[in-house]
Amino acid sequence: MEEKEDQIQTKCRLPRSQKKKLKRLQKLERRRQRRPEIRWKKKEASRNEREALLSSMTEEEREEYIMNLRKTNYEKSVEISKFLDESHEKGMPICINCSFEDSMGPKEIRSLAKQISLCYNIMKKHMVPIKLILTSFSKESRLYKDCELFGVHKWKVHFEEKAFWDVFDPKNTVVLSPDAREYLEDVEEDKIYVIGGLVDTNVKKVSTRKFSINGAVSCLQPGRISWNHL
């Protein structure tokens, strides 16, 4: 009986690489489960700090503080709105090619929607002057429905149902792909840079590079460039 149990345990043992992967996934899952609690604690601490500050003030000081806070928030809102309008018209054109929906499952499409939302919010928060363009992006698509969860109807972004090669001049278009043979060394203002909107759990080689071959546009790896260049 003991010999059979030992044999079963031996068969169930995982290779070291799979053990590491399993531990990493378990760690990520524990971190994901703790996020709501961490966010709640931060909000609670911020609320308590504000209440303590207000309680230490006189009534006149509180009124002045609240008025100044509202004024600051309004001015910041106006500044961000103006920045988004200018970026929408004159920013560095960055295109996300959303034509890979058939190659992804529901979970991957949801992840892509979240990543696009993060791109937009980072651009907005840090005021990076980018004209964000989503191509092959239809309101009937699953991706659009998932983007609605992140407030896509409020985004100041260009939406195109056509593919990027039907929208942009190939001479001015650069496809960014991890499969490219050359690196992107510098950003040119007159170029349009295309990022593949593809979340793949299992890596699909040459998925993004094939569009540069089919569309006869430049293809470069983005590995040596940073947001500071934009």
UniProtKB/TrEMBL annotation:
tRNA-binding is among the record's keywords: no
InterPro entries referenced in this protein's UniProt entry, alphabetically: MT_TRM10-typ (IPR028564), MT_TRM10-typ_sf (IPR038459), tRNA_m1G_MeTrfase_euk (IPR007356)
Name of the featured protein: tRNA (guanine(9)-N(1))-methyltransferase
Ranges of Basic residues composition bias in the record: 13-34
An annotated GO cellular component: nucleus
Species of the source: Theileria orientalis strain Shintoku
EC numbers on record: 2.1.1.221
Source organism superkingdom: Eukaryota
Catalytic activity: guanosine(9) in tRNA + S-adenosyl-L-methionine = N(1)-methylguanosine(9) in tRNA + S-adenosyl-L-homocysteine + H(+)
